[in-house]
Automatic annotation (TrEMBL):
GO cellular component terms, A-Z: cytoplasm
UniProt keyword ATP-binding, yes or no: no
Sequence ranges assigned to domain FAD dependent oxidoreductase in this UniProt record: 38-402
GO terms, molecular function: oxidoreductase activity
InterPro entries: FAD-dep_OxRdtase (IPR006076), FAD/NAD-bd_sf (IPR036188)
Keyword Oxidoreductase tagged: yes
Protein name, as recorded: Glycine/D-amino acid oxidase-like deaminating enzyme
Keywords: Oxidoreductase
Gene3D superfamilies the UniProt entry points to: D-Amino Acid Oxidase, subunit A, domain 2, FAD/NAD(P)-binding domain
Amino acid sequence: MNHHTIKRLPVDTGRSGWEAISTRRFPMQTLESDVRADWLIIGAGFAGLSAARRLSQLRPGDKVVLLDATEVAKSTAGRNSGYMIDVPHNLASGEYSVADEKATALEMEQNRLAIAFAAEAAAEYGMSKETFDPSGKINAAASERGLKFNRNYAASLLRIGEKHELIDLKQMREITGSDYYLGGLYTPGAVLIQPADYIRGLAHGLGSKVNLYEHSPVLELTRQGKDWKARSNRATVTAPRVILAVNGHVESFGYFRRRLMHIFTYASMTAAFSPKEFGSRASGADRWALLPADPMGATVRKISSSGLSRIVIRTRFTYDPSLQVSTKRIAGIAAEQRRSFDARFPELQRVPLEFSWAGALCLSRNHVPAFGEMEEGLYSACCENGLGTVKSTLAGMMAAELATGTGNGDLETYKDQPIPSRLPPEPFAWLGINSVIRWQELRAGREG
């Protein structure tokens, strides 16, 4: 497998509101002439930029080239809901409560390692609180079933000694301004990020330490002697070591085929509105962040800046191995999100949803990353299992350490995982996975 022709590229449908309101502070360049480097990183998202930062620490004299098929923050990394979560958060499970305490303790340790790495970068690169805010998150319950999930989750967090606080209906109303929620579970260790600002801040902060080329997709990757050569639209990059930081797109390079689930989720962001116009009762505090008590429910965040606020709502999941979804589907789901939004915030019904978009997730059946040295000098830091902000940051860090031979306990533990489990053949996978997703969404009921 020394030659890889990449016949498809992921398609980003709809404009992310996070990217639309983000400011870019650095010029763009595309790959126009052949380059030789010590390192090539493919993909400028959480994994790729984290790998680049870790390489700049471990090998400060090396030349690092980073290629991205689109623009920084316009693809998947700028499309998520912006939660860096430390406590258990497995989207594939029916609820978040802890089953295996030993595995959970290890996962939290790894998540916190990634969050600490991101916090160092945020401090070093001068990111604002609007971009990187270690304020914790709330699992919000809108039904008796959701309250039960939160109680179970709280009991398991108590069992493993994790800080948390149950929030009652009145407190939820004060925080959100909404009568929709019956209660919540607050955990303090999560960081809220503006994902597009964070990714752009990371790219800008790395500056001259990395040669970043955008709109430069890798169309062919070939082993030539001791080097790898990546061909883009107009030129090539040659390097002895390559890190694939492309999440589910790693299948397009020929690796982990039929082992990764390509899931899309959908979000909408309101136009900016003045809370004063509607009264604080309409949407509560300036900033809050709600995850659903049921993993298949609605994620809702409010952000504020300069006296204006926006609310983001994320609902629905679909399995799409083609790596793309239609604008028609986004419009249909946006109409559903309008109804979910109005049910929560009836006084804000005249505030339009300004942006609607889809974002890709990559899951494995056994909840493990697609990680490791695939061929000599070629490394994978992919499959974030629905928590890309943290898991992809961690994968990028670990790939840089593996590729440089920087041995430590964290890397040894992270490497010690099985490969992603094989999926059933199509169309059985498509039918089965989408049926399970839809059933879980319907079961979530009022949480969605």
